[in-house]
UniProtKB/TrEMBL annotation:
Ranges for domain Transglutaminase-like: 162-222
Taxonomic lineage from the root: Bacteria, Pseudomonadati, Bacteroidota, Cytophagia, Cytophagales
Gene3D superfamilies associated with the record: 2.60.40.2250, 3.10.620.30
Stored SUPFAM superfamilies: Cysteine proteinases (SSF54001)
Name of protein: Transglutaminase family protein
Top-rank taxon, per record: Bacteria
């Protein structure tokens, strides 16, 4: 499926401000980039690098005044992987590959080492088969028990906060899921990008778990994980995948996001 994503971010900049951004899409299996654009207005020089997780990043100094950052991407993407049958097996920690070990450690927003997080995870998923079934139970529980609402959480809200307050947005849903999955020794990472199936269009966050020697997508905001996605970045939590990180005096004025599927979805098969 061809899919298009566009984001327009506007800042009021009060003094020249250094920024790093993660706004260009990843090149990876299941996601072929057809074309993309990245523009800062007024125009300023920028440089690019790749971070520890393989995410493409940009650096620039925004001038004083109103600044707009516009990004566009058109990609050929696969639909979110359906639940496999049989479900993939849980991998013991001793058998995990080295490169995923840091995804079972606690991180800034995902305090998987706290007893309160561990107790909640065991209460929800402790009686299920280790691995995929546990993750799906955690995902469903968050969807059913955490209220989606803007303006309640902020950039300091952690998984523990969300576990207690039961309210937040996609970032908070994802942090809580990551923390509980890691408490069960399941490698879990945060992913951000575009999703076509959102009631309120925004740059979206979901989580991926490593089981059966593959990464699988889960989305606690959705009733069930589905849709087409363009991945921009992934990492341990929001600290690793911030769309814009500023080092100066600037205020975010607006964020406008558009997502479009450029080919019709295939019709479901008819039973004869």
């Amino acid at each position: 499926m061809k899919m298009k994503g566009r984001s327009v971010i506007t800042y009021s900049v009060y003094a020249p401000t250094n920024v790093t951004t993660m706004l260009r899409p990843r090149r990876q299996d299941g996601q072929s980039i057809i074309q993309e654009g990245f523009e800062i207005s007024p125009s300023v020089p920028f440089s690019e690098y790749t971070d520890l997780y393989g995410n493409p990043c940009q650096r620039a100094i925004l001038p004083a005044g109103q600044v707009t950052i516009t990004t566009e991407v058109q990609a050929q993407v696969n639909i979110t992987k359906p639940i496999p049958s049989p479900v993939p097996a849980y991998i013991l920690v001793g058998d995990l590959p080295d490169e995923v070990m840091h995804y079972i450690l606690p991180s800034r927003y995902c305090q998987s080492d706290l007893q309160e997080i561990s107790n909640l995870a065991m209460q929800i998923a402790g009686n299920f088969v280790p691995g995929y079934d546990q993750v799906e139970e955690i995902r469903k529980w968050i969807h059913q028990n955490v209220k989606y609402q803007y303006g309640i959480s902020d950039s300091t809200t952690t998984a523990l906060d969300t576990a207690r307050n039961r309210i937040g947005v996609c970032r908070d849903f994802t942090h809580l899921a990551i923390a509980m999955c890691r408490s069960l020794c399941i490698p879990t990472r945060m992913t951000v990008g575009y999703l076509d199936k959102l009631q309120e269009m925004d740059l979206h966050a979901w989580f991926e778990v490593y089981i059966g020697n593959e990464w699988y997508t889960f989305d606690a905001v959705q009733e069930q994980t589905e849709g087409y996605r363009i991945e921009i970045a992934h990492g341990r939590d929001a600290a690793d995948v911030a769309m814009v990180t500023q080092y100066g005096n600037a205020t975010l004025d607006s964020l406008h996001v558009e997502v479009e599927l450029m080919e019709p979805e295939p019709a479901p098969a008819q039973n004869s």
